[in-house]
Each structure stands twice: as C-alpha cells, then as structure tokens.
Amino acid sequence: MSNGTLFGTVCAIDPDPYAFTSEEIEGMKRVSSILSVIIENATRSSYDTHEDKLMRLEKLALLGQLSAGLAHELRNPMQSVRGFVQFLFEEQNHHYKDIVLTELDRMNQLVNDFLMATQPTAPKKEKSVLEEIVEETVELIRGEAHLYNVEVHFVPETKTTIVFVDQSQIKQVLINLLKNAMEAVGEALGKIIVSTKRINQETVVIEVIDNGVGISMTIIERIGEPFFSTKDEGTGLGLSISKRIIQEHQGMIEFKNTQAGTKVSVTLPVVS
C-alpha cells in the first residue's frame, strides 16, 4: 500500500509449522512498502506517457486543421504576388526579381511541407526497381551538389531489387537526406556515397554516407520530431515527413555516426 492505495499482497509461506518472528514480519513489511512505491511510480509514469501521447495527437489534429486553413489563405495571394513581381521586373532589376521569386517559392514549399506533415496522403504503391529510383534521384541532385562543392556517387551492391513503393515519395525522402548530407559537409570538399545492400531475402537497405561533421547523440534521438531542426531556417518537417513515409512503407530510417561523418540507413521490404 502506498498513499492509501492497495496494490496487492505479499505472502510468505513455510511448509513446516513455524511462527515468523517480529523482525521477519517487519522485514516483509519493508519489502512490501518498497514494492508498492516501485509499482506506483511505474503506474504514474505509464499514465503520464499515455497522457503525453494524447496531447501530442490532439496538437497534431489541431495543427492539421490550422495548416489547411493557412494553406488556403496563403496560396492565392502568393500566386498573385508572384505574377505581379514577374510583370514589374520584366525589363529591369532581374537580380531583385530572382531573390523575390526564390523566397516566394520557398514560402510555397513551406506550405506544402506543413500540409504533408499534418494531412499526409496515402502512398500510391507499385512494383518498382529500387536501383532505378535511387539512380534517378542521385542524377537529379548532382547539379545542386556541385554548387555545394560535393561529389555524389551511387555504388549499388544489388541489382534489380523489386520493391512495392510510391516512387515519388521515396525520391522525396532520398532528396531530403541528400540535401541534409550536402549541408552537413560544410565548405570543405564533400563526398556522399549512396549504396543499396540486401540485408536478407526480405529486406534491402539504402545507405547515404557523408564525410561531414557527424551528429551528436542528443540530436540523433530527436531527429524526425516535427519542428525540431539545428538549422537557422529549418522547420524539421523534411525529416519528420521522410520518417513517416518510410514507416508507411513498412520500413525504418536510422542515423549513425561514422569515423568520418554520418550514415543514414533506410530499410525497405523486398517483393518476393
């Protein structure tokens, strides 16, 4: 019993006729008290965890409603502003026009990210060749990587691995991981190695390895939380969306430090 709450009873039975001494009885009482405190703490912790989860779900539901309204209210004026900016700067000040248009596009991407995070669409899965998806994504990102002074290499250790996925969503995840890797290597000559490996007959893994600064354990534990980011202008939604997409494909994302940077592993089930 603890704080007036009965959690159970402790029984001590001796097969031989025997009267327990007062010291032994007091010892059992002490053990009972300790056990009741342990059970009470565990129960309270479980209750608190459940309450926290409910609060997070309620917040996400509210955020979803707010994001839908925000997207509707923002998109129309943003498109109007974009059109007027293109018209106003048609003949002059191209530099300023490019800056404004870039920022408007970034705002539009933020709206899309909010919607993806709070109102996700179901993946449209189809049988696909994983190596082709990865190779196409690497080719898409190479031009941007060059601007970061980063080399991106695709080194597949598998051939014609069939997976049941939404191709556009998997490409979205890979682009997000590759962009994070490019930013992680800083201004030094960077290198990113992308590979595919079979873990067993049922599972394949995509690895993205960079030679950046690595990630602290504290940050690794929080990667994937909505709105958690170490970047000044980051929202944390990219990795949160990526994590959810892979989970919806019955896979998982794992982040690890290596001797020379960071390794991200994306596991996916293989079509047998």
Describe this structure in words.
- It contains 6 helices and 7 strands, in the order H-H-E-H-E-E-H-E-E-H-H-E-E.
- It has 2 domains: about 1-120, Helix Hairpins; about 125-270, Heat Shock Protein 90.
- Helix 3 (about 130-145) packs parallel to helix 4 (about 165-185).
- The chain is about 55% helix and about 15% strand.
- It has about 270 residues and is of the alpha+beta class.
- The strands form 2 sheets. A 5-stranded mixed sheet has the order 2-4-5-7-6, with helices on one face. It has a two-stranded antiparallel sheet with strand order 1-3.
- A hairpin with a 2-residue loop joins strand 6 and strand 7.
- Its EC number is 2.7.13.3.
- It catalyses: ATP + protein L-histidine = ADP + protein N-phospho-L-histidine.
Task: Give structural attributes.
272 residues; Helix Hairpins; alpha+beta; 2 domains; Heat Shock Protein 90
Distance between the termini: 55 Å
CATH architecture group name of the largest domain: 2-Layer Sandwich
Radius of gyration: 27 Å
- What is the number of helical segments per DSSP (H or I, 4+ residues)? 6
**Mean pLDDT across residues:** 75
Can you tell me the CATH class of the largest domain?
Alpha Beta
The CATH topology annotation of the largest domain reads as Heat Shock Protein 90
User: Based on CA inertia axes, which overall geometry fits?
Assistant: elongated
> Could you list the spans in which at least 5 consecutive residues all have pLDDT below 50?
none
Oligomeric category = single chain
What fraction of the residues are assigned to beta strands by DSSP?
15-25%
Main sheet characteristics: 5 strands, mixed
